[in-house]
Amino acid sequence: MTSSAQPVTSLTDSFGRVHTSLRISVTDRCNIRCFYCMPAGNVTFAPREQLLTFEEITRLVRVLAAAGVRDVRLTGGEPLVRRDLDRLVAMLASVEGISDLALTTNGLLLPQQAESLRRAGLRRLNISLDTLNEAVFQQITRRQGVARVLAGIDAAIDAGFDQIRLNALAIRDLTESELEPLVEFAASRGLTLRFIEYMPLDADRQWQPDRVLGGDEILRRLRRRFGELRPVPPPQPSQPARDYELVDWPVTPQGRGVDDGRPRPLPRVGLIRPVTEPFCGACDRLRLTAEGTIRNCLFSDAEWDLRGHLRGGASDEAILNEVAQAVRAKAAGHLISQIGFATPQRAMFQIGG
Ligand code: SAM
Ligand code: SF4
Questions:
Q1: Cα 269 to Cα 222: distance, rounded to the nearest angstrom
Q2: Cβ-based burial of 140 (10 A; exposed 0-12, middle 13-18, buried ≥19)
Q3: Is the Cβ–Cβ distance between 129 and 182 less than 8 Å?
Q4: If 203 and its partner were Cys, which of 17, 100, 167, 347 is the partner (CB 3.0–4.6 Å)?
Q5: Whose CA is nearest to atom 7 of ligand 2?
Q6: Distance (Å) from CA 276 to ligand 2 centroid
Q7: Which of the ligands is closest to the CA of residue 145?
Q8: What spacing in Å lies between the alpha carbon of 5 and ligand 1's midpoint?
Q9: Ligand 2 neighbours (beta carbon < 6 A)
Q10: How many CB atoms sit inside 10 A of residue 22's CB?
């Protein structure tokens, strides 16, 4: 931006979408190898010196908060493998203007870290849990560990987060049998569960449209098992998930699974349908990769380098202007399932999910 240009006060793209939400990848490393994200072996990770420092991340968040960013979610790779993550959480929790600080994790390290993250100021957690079955877990992650994830969920509940959600990737010929047990597991703990459609972001490029277990089919199956699923109006139009209340719960012989006798709100289950019902029209998200580039969409290869600016002595204004360029360049939407769609060059773990 030249000094005569208008200062950037909001991150609005050419379709009028205002960007208030930032996903920050804090590492591309992970302690498991989900086939829909990472390659099985020979993974090339970014050299450590290329990762943004906590101070650099915090400066960026401060700059973006001044232009209207309100929600920050930490992700990766697996964010909990980044050393001293609770220190970053504390730094971000004190940035003026950030009203929502959340984190997405595979849960494996929560038994050790849930409490310190909560104490540092983290309010909300999403924990990924595709299955309760160890054999299926190993097929997905190429590692062992479902019991550890479940222990991580318990540790998070004990730590007293304001909100914990479970995310389950739904994959045809692999996780159909997991849908109902996962709903029962989540509902019995008072947690919202969301099913996510499988997107073409796997490093091995094995994604095929017929592996996507679509939202309509998931709903049909859940209605068959649980009865009425009543749609809940989304609190904001930009929320990608469509949530439903399990009106007829409890349906299991054991009852609700909560035994303190207090009345509970009806359990909820949600669908995130990026493939069969894209939500690009209301997208308000930006993504910061672990190496400090901004992306305006999971499915666009364009990236704007902020690390160079940060390490080259750029002003806050120059950094914000770079982000504003990324926002202005955002396309109307991605084209998954349409002619012309090209799989992005970087896989999910390198972008930040
Ligand atoms: N490691 C953490 C985890 O697994 O929760 C955070 C990063 S992970 C990339 C974030 C989310 O992206 C997870 O819920 C994961 O299931 C989801 N994800 C990964 N690859 C995906 C794909 N190809 N399609 C849809 N969701 C995907
Ligand atoms: Fe790791 Fe999350 Fe990717 Fe699985 S989805 S390999 S847990 S980063």
A1: 9
A2: buried
A3: yes
A4: 347
A5: 106
A6: 22
A7: 2
A8: 39
A9: 30, 32-34, 37-38, 76-78, 106, 348-349
A10: 24
Q: Residues lining ligand 1, judged by CB closer than 6 Å? A: 30, 36-37, 75-76, 78, 104-106, 128, 167, 169, 196, 198-199, 201-202, 348-349, 353
Which is nearest to 252 in space by CA: 270, 215, 229, 227? 227
What kind and span of H or E run contains 331? none
* Per-domain boundaries in the chain: 21-351
Whole-number Å distance, alpha carbon 131 to ligand 1 midpoint, is 14
SS3 of 193-256: EEEEECCCCCCCCCCCHHHECCHHHHHHHHHHHHCCEEEECCCCCCCCEEEEEECCCCCCCCCC
Residue nearest to atom 1 of ligand 2 (CA): 30
Residue 130's nearest CA partner among 40, 34, 39, 220 is 34
What is the third-level CATH fold of 21-351?
Answer: TIM Barrel (3.20.20)
pLDDT tens string for the chain (353 positions)?
444 467 888 999 999 999 999 999 999 999 999 999 999 988 999 999 999 999 999 999 999 999 999 999 999 999 999 999 999 999 999 999 999 999 999 999 999 999 999 999 999 999 999 999 999 999 999 999 999 999 999 999 999 999 999 999 999 999 999 999 999 999 999 999 999 999 999 999 999 999 999 999 999 999 999 999 999 999 888 889 999 999 998 744 444 345 556 667 899 999 999 999 888 889 999 999 999 999 999 988 899 999 999 999 999 999 999 999 999 999 988 767 666 677 888 999 999 98
Q: Which of 39, 126, 64 is nearest to 353 (CA)?
A: 126
Residue with the smallest CA separation from ligand 1 atom 13 is: 128
Cα(124) to ligand 2 centroid in Å equals 19
Report how far ligand 1's centroid is from the alpha carbon of 348 (Å): 7
Ligand nearest to the CA of 126: 1
Which ligand neighbours the alpha carbon of 80 most closely? 1
- Give, in degrees to the nearest 5, the angle at Cα 331 between 304 and 213: 105
DSSP code, position 297:
-
Index of the ligand 2 atom closest to the CA of residue 141: 4
